[in-house]
């Protein structure tokens, strides 16, 4: 049980949002609290410029830096907090989804003016699937936005969450005066630009106390009383167990840019968020408190600079203690693996680590040893579940553009798929190859890397598909009949599993209804 102290110290989470909701700003403020960075702007400057060109090399250059911000660790109140970055914008890819398999909880940032947006919906869906505990932070209260109650209705409806506000805003935009912290029963008065002084936080057990008027004025006081009463009537009490099982999501309001509401969020987060959780392997469940080390690779970052052809495999530690220079068992390859220079990510500095514990993410330098989903152990065969491939949403036929290099093309495609860049499907009727991705940028990356690293050339043909989903049926006869009937809409993934290519959402629904015996899956883990 020697690791128990280290485990209890750790909180590993991700911040997810639609682009522009304020994820970077919030991350930065959290790092400032932890003293991990000294100046605002440090994370921001590493960020992929939003309106940047679709020139992926430019993005890639910046991604080079973003390796450093893939995991940001800092200490706060004696705890070790690890924030895993979930890239958005043009960088949005399966990686973003898969990172969610390596966190123990998430904070969802929502722009009060925009409400729930598309990328948030997709990411929360993955969290829900995994029952990841979620805290919601409604941001930009210094601007006019949607009514608090309406917004929470939208969160419940579109994200499928059961919310419980733990703070409540007092006005918004020009009239924004702060929040009432329902969790700690404190009145937090707003002053812009993070100047919220200690005296801006007032213990306030009873909102009926006439003192309230003195602080926020009569009209705002009565509005706050009414609204808090409504909140307490409409929403069940906060229940930590329900939060931990992903069944209830506490909500905070604030303004990240003004550093307002962020400390309350962080203080509550460290109190309620889970310590590193165990993970299910195909063989058994693995607990963090186990003596023996185990971990899994959830992301591979390849450096595209031909002068530095290194890759970093990101490994989340599940159990035991990882030590530098120790031999571990690479389960898939059945051989030993030893890392001389495992990397930890404290803020934006990379440094070699001597040891790491459950909840930590380490970077392992690698020249092609790892695939997404690989596990390392002290000898036991463990294949961690829950690092799935997700149903892609963008598709193109891939053609060989240089017939002399078909071997190189096939090798390149398979290796790039192992890195988790995209998924490769082979059509059942004509054997044509299809690449499916979650974000469009991946097509350019694949083409570029095939040429530069494998000397192979490819071109693409557009393809209009809504989704690819894996299909299964317990009755082989029914499955055969389905295959015969729908051959032109079927393909095989890299492992030879059957995949249905749906042209439209409606078409998919119709096929599902027409074939109730066939099961359709949106990740490859079923
Ligand atoms: P993202 O990572 O989720 O994409 O969002 P990011 O933090 O970059 O924030 C997007 C924009 O929203 C930024 O403005 C940021 O300054 C602004 N923002 C973040 N939090 C708040 C807030 O609480 N209130 C208000 N009013 N704005 C906020 P930008 O103009 O796009 O970038 P910049 O020029 O400020 O860097």
Task: Please name the defining characteristics of this protein.
7-stranded mixed beta sheet, 526 residues, 31 strands, Rossmann fold, 3 domains, 8-stranded antiparallel beta sheet, alpha+beta, binds guanosine-5',3'-tetraphosphate, Alpha-Beta Plaits
Provide an overview of this structure.
This protein is α+β, with helices and mostly antiparallel strands and 526 residues long. The chain has 3 domains: 4-72 and 84-272, Rossmann fold (3-Layer(aba) Sandwich), CATH 3.40.50.300; 279-377, P-loop containing nucleotide triphosphate hydrolases (Rossmann fold, 3-Layer(aba) Sandwich); 394-521, Alpha-Beta Plaits, CATH 3.30.70. It is built from 14 helices and 31 strands. It has an 8-stranded antiparallel β-sheet. A 7-stranded mixed β-sheet has the order 2-3-1-4-5-11-6, with helices on both faces. Strands 18-17-23-14-15-22 form a 6-stranded antiparallel β-sheet. A hairpin with a 2-residue loop joins strand 2 (71-76) and strand 3. Helix 11 (406-418) crosses helix 12 (441-454). The two termini are 34 Å apart. Residues 46-56 have low confidence and may be disordered. Bound molecules: guanosine-5',3'-tetraphosphate.
């Amino acid at each position: 049980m020697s690791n128990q102290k280290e485990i209890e110290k750790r909180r590993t989470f991700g911040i997810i949002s639609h682009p522009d909701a304020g994820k970077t700003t919030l991350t930065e403020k959290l790092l400032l609290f932890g003293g991990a960075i000294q100046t605002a702007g440090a994370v921001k400057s590493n960020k992929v410029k939003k309106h940047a060109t679709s020139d992926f090399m430019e993005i890639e250059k910046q991604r080079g830096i973003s390796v450093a911000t893939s995991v940001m660790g800092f200490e706060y109140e004696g705890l070790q907090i690890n924030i895993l970055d979930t890239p958005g914008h043009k960088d949005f890819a399966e990686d973003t989804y898969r990172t969610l398999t390596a966190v123990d909880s998430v904070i969802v940032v929502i722009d009060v003016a925009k409400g729930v947006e598309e990328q948030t919906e997709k990411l929360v869906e993955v969290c829900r699937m995994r029952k990841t505990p979620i805290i919601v932070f409604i941001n930009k209260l210094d601007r006019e936005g949607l009514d608090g109650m309406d917004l929470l209705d939208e969160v419940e409806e579109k994200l499928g969450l059961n919310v419980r506000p733990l703070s409540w805003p007092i006005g918004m935009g020009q009239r924004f005066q702060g929040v009432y912290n329902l969790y700690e029963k404190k009145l937090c008065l707003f002053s812009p630009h993070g100047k919220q002084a200690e005296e801006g936080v007032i213990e306030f057990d009873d909102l009926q106390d006439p003192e309230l008027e003195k602080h926020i004025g009569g009209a705002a006081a009565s509005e706050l009383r009414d609204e808090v009463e409504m909140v307490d009537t409409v929403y069940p009490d906060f229940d930590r167990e329900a939060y931990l099982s992903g069944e209830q999501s506490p909500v905070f309001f604030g303004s990240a840019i003004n550093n307002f509401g962020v400390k309350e969020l962080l203080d509550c987060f460290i109190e309620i968020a889970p310590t590193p959780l165990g993970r299910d392997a195909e063989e058994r469940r693995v607990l963090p408190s186990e003596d023996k080390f185990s971990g899994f690779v959830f992301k591979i970052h390849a450096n595209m600079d031909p002068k530095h052809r290194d890759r970093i495999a990101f490994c989340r530690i599940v159990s035991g203690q990882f030590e530098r220079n120790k031999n571990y068992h690479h389960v898939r390859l059945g051989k030993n693996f030893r890392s001389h220079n495992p990397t930890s990510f404290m803020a934006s500095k990379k440094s070699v680590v001597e040891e790491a514990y459950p909840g930590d993410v380490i970077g392992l330098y690698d020249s092609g040893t790892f695939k997404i989903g690989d596990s390392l152990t002290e000898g036991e065969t463990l294949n961690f579940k829950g690092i799935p491939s997700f149903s892609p949403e963008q598709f193109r036929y891939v053609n060989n553009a240089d017939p002399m290099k078909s071997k190189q093309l096939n090798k390149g495609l398979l290796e790039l798929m192992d890195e988790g860049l995209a998924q490769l499907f082979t059509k059942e009727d004509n054997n044509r190859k299809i690449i499916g991705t979650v974000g469009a940028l991946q097509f350019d990356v694949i083409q570029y890397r095939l040429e530069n690293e494998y000397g192979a050339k490819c071109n693409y043909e557009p393809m209009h598909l809504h989704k690819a989903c894996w299909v299964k049926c317990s009755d082989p006869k029914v499955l055969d009949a389905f295959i015969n009937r729908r051959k032109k809409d079927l393909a095989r993934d890299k492992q030879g599993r059957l995949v249905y290519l749906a042209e439209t959402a409606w078409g998919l629904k119709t096929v599902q209804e027409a074939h109730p015996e066939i099961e359709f899956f949106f990740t490859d883990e079923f």
